[in-house]
Structures are given as C-alpha cells and as structure tokens.
Amino acid sequence: MMKQVTFWLSLITIVLIINGATAQSASDIEGFWLTDDGESHVHIYREGNTYRGKIAWLKNPNDDQGRPITDDRGDEILGMEFMKGFKYDGDEYTDGRVYDPESGKTYYGSMRLDGANTLKLRGSLDKSGWLGRTETWTRVKK
User: Fold this and answer.
1) Which pLDDT tens digits describe the chain residue by residue (142 residues)?
2) What does the angle CA 30 – CA 79 – CA 27 come to, to the nearest 5 degrees?
C-alpha cells in the first residue's frame, strides 16, 4: 500500500513539474515574427498592460519610384504600429485591434501561441471572432 502511494505521489509530482516547465507566460509572445506571406517582420512588444505590434521589416519597403510604401492615409508602412490593445488572459491575447494598411480597415484581434515559435493571429469583423480569418506567423530567430 505504501509503495502505491509513493508511486502515485511521484507520478503527480512529475506531471506538475512538466506542466510548470511548459506553461506559457505573457511575455512569451514578445519578439519578431515573420508574417505568413513572408513579406514582413512584426515586432510584438509590451507597453503597460497590453501588447502591441509594429512593422519592423518589409521585403519591399519602397514603391517603383523608390519612395517608401504608404497606406491610403499617407502613413509609411515600415515602422507603423498596426496592432494594439492585446491583453493576456492566461491562454491567449484578446481585445486587440489590428489595422490592415492595404484596406485601411481596423479589425478586432486575438492571438495565441501554438508552441514557442508559431503564432496564430485572428482578425475579425465581430468581437467574438466568428467572421474573420487566421494567419500563422513564425518566430524570427536572431
């Protein structure tokens, strides 16, 4: 009987250690991410209690005349903060807003990590996330 108790306590301890080692912290999302089209790197960082993202690199930062690419408002895309307000809820990052420089529209956003090097960003028309699409980004290794 004592051996069984010791076995189960040891097993529970191992499971708790493994779960603790793989638990995600809010700051795990910080860093640079390659977008799914391979055209840009996004720098995700914390500011206050929320997470934001800005375009840190563009494959083609200039137009045919050598001028920086801009959105419809005339704002340069390189360096643009286009993600803001994401709050970590212990599992994912919610309540964010994502600006699409190509369309000029702003969408509701949520993000979640799928492993250490994969990020799923969902932009949607509705706050609940039903009407939208998900992109998969990959962490940029330095």
Assistant:
1) 655 544 444 445 444 344 444 467 889 999 999 999 999 999 999 999 999 999 999 999 999 999 999 999 999 999 999 999 999 999 999 999 999 999 999 999 999 999 999 999 999 999 888 899 999 999 998 7
2) 10
Joined together, the tokens standing for residue 13 give 């301890």
> What is the distance between the alpha carbons of residues 85 and 113, in angstroms, rounded to a whole number?
17
Half-sphere exposure of 133 (CA within 13 A, CB side): 4
List beta partners, residue 46: 51
d(CA 95, CA 128): 10
Are 142 and 133 within 8 A, CB to CB? no
Domains and CATH numbers, the chain: 26-139 (2.40.128.520)
